[in-house]
Amino acid sequence: MKYLFNILLLLSSIASFSQFKISGYVTDANNQKLSGVVVHVEENNSETTTDENGFYQFLSFPKGTNKIIFHLSGYETKTEIVTSNGTEIKLNVILTEKELHLDEVIVSTLYNKMQSQNVMKVEHASVNTLKENGATSLIDGIATFPGVSQISTGNSIGKPVIRGLSSNRVLVYSQGIRMENQQFGEEHGLGLNASGIESVEVIKGPASLLYGSDALGGVIYFNPEKYAPFQEKSADFEQQYFTNTQGTSTTFGFKASPSNFKFLVRGNYTSHADYEVPNGNRIINTRFIEKDFKSGIGYSNSKVSTDFRYNYNNLNLGLPEEDLENSGFRKPLFPKQEVANHVLSLNQKVYFKNSKIEGDFGYSLNNRKELEAPDEIALSMKLKTTSYNVKYFFPKMNRWESIIGMQGMDQTNTNFGEELLIPDANVKDFGAFATTNYSWNSNILQAGIRYDNRKINTLTHGIEGEEGYFEAIDKHFNSFNASLGYKTDLSNYISTRINIASGFRAPNLSELTSNGVHEGSNRYEIGNNDLENEQNFQVDLNLEYRSEHFEWFINGFYNLVNNYIYITPTGAEIDGNDVYNYVQNNAFLFGGEAGIHFHPHPYDWLHFTSSFESVTGKQSNNFLPLIPANQWKNNIRAEFEYHNWLKKGFTSLFLNYTFAQNNLGEFETKTNDYLLVNFAIGSTIKMAKKEFRWNVNANNLLDKNYVNHLSRLKSDGINNMGRNIIVSLNFDL
Question: Fewest CB within 10 A of the end CB: N or C in the chain?
Answer without folding.
Answer: N
